[in-house]
Design goal:
alpha/beta; TIM Barrel; eight-stranded parallel β-sheet; two-stranded antiparallel ribbon; 10 strands; globular
C-alpha cells in the first residue's frame, strides 16, 4: 500500500515498513493539550523543528482548536496563525520537513499548500467545505479523511450510534468519502483515513473503535490514529499519566498494523513502542 505525497511516497507493502509519527504543532490559544504554549509563532516553529529532530516523520500544523466545546475561528485568523509557521518550517528545513495543514477550510488549505504543506488533515473528511476536494485536485496534495459526528462545539454532548456500535458507521462513512474523492479526481493513493477517536464518541465508542481498529485496513488505505493525550486515556489507563498512556496505546495500535500515529510528543517511549513486534493483544481490563 502506497501513500503518495508530492515529493515522496511511503510504502507500507514492504515487510519491514515503519509506522510514521506525526508531530502536532498547535498554533492556538485553546487546544486541549498544549493551548497557548505554541501560540507564539517563534515557539511553534521551535517546537516543530524539535519534533523533527527527535524523530517525527512529519508535522501537522493547526490554527483552529477542534477540542470539544471549541468555537470556530475565521479564515483570516487561521491563515494569520499558520502560514508564517509553515513558511518558516519549510525554509528552515530546506524543504525537507514534510508539513500537513490541519484545517477544514479550503482557502486555508490552498494557502498552506502554496507555502509548502504537502498534506491536508481534514477532520470533516472534506464535508465542512465542499471546495476542499477542488483544492486537493488542483494542488495534488495528499489528504487524511477523518470521521466526526457533529461539530466540535457540540460533538460530545450526547453522541449516539445504532446499537451503540460506531464501527460500522465510521467504516461506511470513510468508505463513501474515499469514493467521493476518487470520483472528484483525487488519486486513491493520496488518501489516508482516521476513525476520529474522541470526535463525537463516548469512552465506550472509543474503546470499540480501538478494539476493532484492524477492520479499518479493509478500506485499503493507510490508517492514522490520533489518540495522543486524549481524556479517555485516563479511564483506559488509570495508573498512568496521559503521556505514558499514549505510549502504551501506541504499542497496541502498532501491533494491529496502524501505519501512522499522531502524537504531541515524540518521546522515547513512543519510539520504542513502534519497534515492538506486532503480537500484542488489547488488555481486557482497559475497556
Amino acid at each position: 500500500m502506497i501513500w503518495q505525497l508530492k515529493t515522496q511516497a511511503y510504502n507500507f507493502d514492504v515487510w519491514d515498513w515503519k509506522p510514521l509519527l506525526v508531530g502536532v504543532v498547535n498554533v492556538t490559544p485553546d487546544s486541549f493539550s498544549d493551548g497557548r504554549r505554541f501560540f507564539d509563532p517563534e515557539q511553534a516553529i521551535k517546537h516543530g523543528l524539535h519534533l523533527l529532530e527527535i524523530g517525527a516523520d512529519f508535522l501537522d500544523v493547526g490554527g483552529e482548536s477542534t477540542r470539544p466545546g471549541s468555537d470556530p475561528v475565521s479564515t483570516e485568523e487561521e491563515l494569520r496563525r499558520v502560514i508564517p509557521v509553515i513558511s518558516a518550517l519549510v525554509r528552515k528545513t530546506n524543504g525537507n520537513g514534510v508539513i500537513s495543514i490541519d484545517t477544514t477550510k479550503a482557502a486555508v488549505a490552498r494557502e498552506a499548500i502554496a507555502a509548502g504543506a504537502e498534506i491536508v488533515n481534514d477532520i470533516s473528511a472534506c464535508t465542512f467545505d465542499p471546495e476542499m476536494v477542488d483544492v486537493l485536485r488542483d494542488t495534488g496534495a495528499a489528504v487524511c479523511l477523518m470521521h466526526i459526528q457533529g461539530m466540535p462545539k457540540t460533538m460530545q454532548t450526547c453522541p449516539v450510534y445504532p446499537g451503540d456500535n460506531p464501527v460500522p458507521v465510521v467504516l461506511d462513512f470513510l468508505r463513501k468519502r474515499i469514493a467521493v474523492l476518487v470520483s472528484g479526481g483525487i488519486a486513491r493513493d493520496k488518501i489516508i483515513i482516521d476513525p476520529g477517536l474522541g470526535f463525537g464518541k463516548t469512552y465506550e465508542h472509543n474503546c470499540r473503535l480501538i478494539r476493532e481498529i484492524a477492520r479499518f485496513h479493509d478500506l485499503g488505505r493507510p490508517v492514522l490514529v490520533g489518540h495522543s493525550r486524549k481524556s479517555f486515556l485516563e479511564a483506559m489507563y488509570p495508573d498512568l499519566d496521559r503521556e505514558a498512556a499514549t505510549a502504551e496505546l501506541s504499542r497496541y495500535l502498532v501491533s494491529q498494523g496502524v501505519q501512522i500515529l499522531r502524537v504531541h510528543e515524540v518521546s522515547t517511549k513512543i519510539l520504542s513502542s513502534m519497534r515492538m513486534e506486532k503480537t500484542l493483544v488489547f488488555s481486557e481490563y482497559l475497556c
